[in-house]
Amino acid sequence: MKIHCIASAICLTIMLAACEKELDFKYHYIEPLTVIEAEITPEGTKAGITLTTPMDEPMDRTRLTDASVTLTDLTDGSVYKLQADAEGFFTDPTPGITGHSYRLTVERGDCHYEAEATMYPPVKIESLEFNWINMPYDQVAVFQAQFSCEHYGSSDCYWIRLFRNGRIYQWGEIDGRGAVDGVYTYFTMTTRRDTDEEDDDTVLYDGDVITCTVSPISRAMHDYLEALQNDSNGPAMFSGDKCLGYFMATSPVSESIAFHPDEIPEYK
Known about the structure:
Elements: H1 3-18, E1 34-41, E2 44-51, E3 68-73, E4 79-81, E5 83-84, E6 90-92, E7 101-108, E8 111-118, E9 124-134, E10 139-148, E11 157-164, E12 167-175, E13 183-192, E14 209-217, H2 219-229, E15 239-240, E16 243-249, E17 253-258
Parallel strand pairs: 1-16
Antiparallel strand pairs: 1-2, 2-6, 3-4, 3-7, 5-6, 7-8, 8-15, 9-10, 10-13, 11-12, 11-14, 14-17
């Protein structure tokens, strides 16, 4: 850095310090809102119920079990009452069926919540790979997943979750507008080559296993996830009393790839 740049930086720091003023933020208290996070898959139904936490208090993820939760198969009329398990999730083992529509109903105290979703067919993961790309500060490993769907459409939407050695690592959402001949491509930057300069939440080491899970979702679910990426609660997915959260019916598919930095090609 040139001398005059260093001097300017020092002057700016002094000016900012001289103008420093303690800010006292005051938050308006609002009653905690119910948060429902639920899904039905070919493995069954699982729903978690929590409450929002005030801004000035530690996050509380205690699951609530003082509710009545039912799932209705709107296609064949079957009704299932979910039971709370040892972890506080409401569950039912009945497999979801592709093409069927479902309604989740939650009753808690005087409050009533409902959401509906249709189960979409699973995709086929075609390939997973890493490539090194050159950035000004280092080389970065770009993860790429390609998958296809038999019932391709430009309005299709997908939730892609990456797990590092079994724990959530990254996630994102895409729709069908970028598909080429029915093949979707999802890519994201992961770790730097110089792991000493990487944060613990993004670093990958030799031998780490990345599992990619692709879940077909509705446009409403896509918009909800997109809003979360932008630090918003997203559109309301439940009718009835006000609450946050989502309900989706999906057929997730997963494939894994091991990270070996010395075997990764450079992107050309």
